[in-house]
Amino acid sequence: MRNNIVCIFTISFGLLTLMQVTNGKIFSRCELKKALEKNKVNRSFIAHWVCLAESESGRNSSKLTKKILYDMYGIFQIHSNEWCGRGGVIGGSCWTRCDNFLDDKLDDDIACAMKVFDKYGFKNWKGWEEKCKKQDLPNLSDCT
Ligand SMILES: *[C@@H]1O[C@H](CO)[C@@H](O)[C@H](O)[C@H]1NC(C)=O
Ligand SMILES: *[C@@H]1O[C@H](CO)[C@@H](O)[C@H](O)[C@H]1NC(C)=O
Ligand SMILES: *[C@@H]1O[C@H](CO)[C@@H](O)[C@H](O)[C@H]1NC(C)=O
C-alpha cells in the first residue's frame, strides 16, 4: 500500500516535471523588455527585439525548430552550427550547447543574439524582416 502511494507520487511528480520542461515559458512583452534591459541592450532597439521574438518564437523560450542541416533554438531562434553546438556538444561562435537556449533563463540567449546582431544585423531574422521591419512595433510604454 505504502509502496503504491510512493509510486503514484513519483510518477505524478515525474510527469509534472516533464510537462514543465516541454511547455517552457511564454514571456510577456514586459518580462522580455525587462530581461533585455537587464542585459544592457540598446534601448532604441528593445521594441525591435520584442517584435522579433514574438515573430520568431511567439516569445516561447523553449521553442525548438528542427531543420535538416541545422536547428533553431529558443526565444530568438538561434541557429545551431554557426552559433552553438547541437546534441549536447559545446560549440559555435557563442561557444555553448544549443540546448542551453531552451530554458527560461535568457541571459545567455541575449548575449548570443547580440553577437548574431553584430555580425548580420536584424536582417538575419526572417521574422523581423516580415513582421517588424518598417512596421508598427509593440508599444511597451505601459510596462512598469
Ligand atoms: C543605440 O543605438 C543608437 C541608434 O543606432 C545609437 O545612435 C546609439 O549610439 C546606441 N547607444 C549605445 C549606448 O550604444
Ligand atoms: C513552446 O515550444 C515548445 C517547443 O517547440 C512546444 O512544445 C510548446 O508547446 C510551446 N509552448 C506553447 C505554449 O506554445
Ligand atoms: C503607447 O501606449 C501609450 C499608453 O497606452 C499611449 O499613450 C501611446 O500613445 C502609445 N504609443 C504609440 C506609438 O502608439
UniProtKB/TrEMBL annotation:
EC number from the UniProt entry: 3.2.1.17
Family annotation (SMART domains): LYZ1 (SM00263)
Keywords for the protein's UniProt record, in alphabetical order: Antimicrobial, Bacteriolytic enzyme, Disulfide bond, Glycosidase, Hydrolase, Signal
Enzyme class: hydrolase
Reactions mediated catalytically: Hydrolysis of (1->4)-beta-linkages between N-acetylmuramic acid and N-acetyl-D-glucosamine residues in a peptidoglycan and between N-acetyl-D-glucosamine residues in chitodextrins
GO biological process: defense response to bacterium; killing of cells of another organism
Residues in the signal sequence: 1-24
Keyword Signal in record: yes
GO molecular function: lysozyme activity
Stated family: Belongs to the glycosyl hydrolase 22 family.
PANTHER family: LYSOZYME C (PTHR11407)
Protein name: lysozyme
Species of the source: Pseudolycoriella hygida
